[in-house]
Amino acid sequence: YIMELTFTQAAKGVNKEIVVNINDSCERCHGKGHEPGTKSQRCHYCNGTGMETINTGPFVMRSTCRRCGGRGSIITTPCLVCRGTGQTKQKKTVMVPVPAGVEDGQTVRMPVGKKEIFIT
Asked: What backbone torsions phi and psi does residue 115 show, to the nearest 5 degrees?
């Protein structure tokens, strides 16, 4: 994100509030991907391992399970808000402390939820 400052704000320092859009854990399902009150089922294709084994004659190949995508479980009732992804776009308000004497182009790293953003 790029933040605009006046000369006085940059010289004296300021706490500036910005609004950011980030992907964060779904508030309805808490990032699990299934509707509250329901459970995900163990994938029967890979037996819950997340890996499938393919026998081709004398060779054995292991790869990520095509059915569950390596998760080991299948969501039978996906969350209505995030559609089973466990992530939603959310607007968050962040208070950015700008130190006195900051120079043009300096970057600050800020934690927002479980993510980090960079503000120039």
From this structure: -110, 170
Rounded-to-integer distance, Cα 35 and Cα 29, Å: 6
Phi, psi angles (nearest 5°) of residue 74: -120, 135
For residue 64, the model assigns a pLDDT of 92
**Residue 46 reports pLDDT greater than 80:** yes
Instruction: Kindly compute the dihedral angle of the four CA atoms of residues 16, 20, 26, 27, in this order, to the nearest 10 degrees.
Output: 40
- Residue 96, Cβ density class (10 Å: 0-12 exposed, 13-18 middle, ≥19 buried): middle
Model pLDDT for residues 85-97, shown as the tens digit of each residue? 888 888 888 888 8
Beta carbons within 10 angstroms of residue 15's beta carbon: 9
The pLDDT of residue 17 is above 80? yes
Domain covering 1-30+87-120 in this structure, CATH number: 2.60.260
- Dist. CA 56–CA 27, nearest whole Å: 45
Residue 46 corresponds to which tokens in the numbers above? Answer: 């890979």
